[in-house]
Design the sequence.
């Protein structure tokens, strides 16, 4: 806040408080010539009389006490521009104190699960309950309360994982986040195969997911295969199985994050996609990240008692 605005706030506050004080004093004061409290000569219906009685002193004094309290409050807690007040109170400081108390209670709750492996936590019903609660507060906005996802947000209940579905891979995703980039290949492909090049690649990609590779006599798919092997193979592999190391999805499993319709794939291949999974490690901390990762892992894995855990 600039100095000018600071003084503007101070003057405005003082003007209001002093103005209310003056108005209270002025209206409560009786002046020479005022009618007596019982004598105004205003009558209605013969028996209804208007009086001019002042407010009771205790009522007026109550207002004065409230004004004095307001000055004391502003001097103690601050309210005159950027003046902090004698008490040095601030909403930020209050938030930090309350957050520290709440975090201390949470640490006690999460302490038994500190450092445990994801699949070990997935066998603990209470840990899963806590993980589900964390998921609802942080992850459900994108992935949905049922974790089924939506267009552009992966389904976490199936066995398809673009970045790998092992316990520690899921934990890495939660803690450090992921950034998946599909480059825009439209102009490159058109330069290689003409204006219909993107459609050729779409035909071949659809063929990859069909039994026995689909119709081998499909002209568009045959043209698309050549283009695919010149551009797409670097990330998705020659067989279209993808690469979890770079987040390149498997093109043969029938799962399409942004849809498998022709228009959706034209956008994906021609214009590219950019998906970001935020890093939650600094916000949740290690233990809560492990709990939510365990819950997510449990949605598509049945942890078996006595199974070996991964540290």
Sequence:
């Amino acid at each position: 806040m600039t100095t000018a605005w600071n003084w503007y706030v101070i003057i405005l506050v003082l003007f209001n408080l002093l103005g209310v004080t003056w108005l209270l004093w002025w209206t409560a004061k009786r002046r020479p010539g005022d009618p007596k409290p019982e004598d105004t000569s205003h009558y209605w219906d013969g028996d209804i009389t208007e009086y001019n009685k002042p407010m009771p002193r205790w009522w007026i004094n109550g207002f004065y006490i409230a004004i004095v309290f307001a000055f004391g409050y502003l001097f103690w807690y601050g309210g005159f521009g950027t003046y902090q007040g004698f008490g040095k109170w601030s909403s930020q400081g209050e938030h930090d104190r309350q957050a520290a108390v709440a975090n201390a209670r949470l640490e006690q709750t999460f302490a038994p699960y500190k450092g445990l492996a994801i699949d070990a936590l997935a066998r603990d019903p209470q840990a899963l309950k806590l993980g589900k609660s964390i998921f609802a507060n942080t992850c459900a906005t994108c992935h949905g309360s049922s974790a089924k996802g939506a267009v552009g947000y992966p389904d976490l209940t199936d066995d398809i994982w673009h970045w790998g579905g092992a316990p520690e891979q899921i934990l890495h995703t939660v803690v450090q986040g992921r950034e998946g980039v599909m480059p825009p290949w439209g102009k490159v492909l058109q330069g290689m195969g003409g204006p219909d090049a993107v459609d050729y690649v779409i035909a071949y990609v659809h063929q990859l997911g069909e039994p026995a590779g689909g119709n081998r006599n499909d002209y568009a798919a045959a043209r698309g295969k050549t283009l695919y092997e010149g551009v797409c193979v670097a990330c998705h592999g020659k067989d279209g199985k993808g690469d979890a190391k770079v987040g390149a999805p498997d093109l043969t499993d029938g799962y399409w994050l942004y849809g498998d319709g022709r228009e959706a794939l034209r956008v994906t291949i021609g214009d590219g996609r950019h998906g970001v999974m935020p890093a939650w490690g600094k916000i949740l901390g290690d233990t809560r990240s492990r709990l939510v990762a365990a819950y997510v892992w449990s949605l598509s894995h049945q942890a078996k008692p006595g199974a070996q855990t991964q540290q």
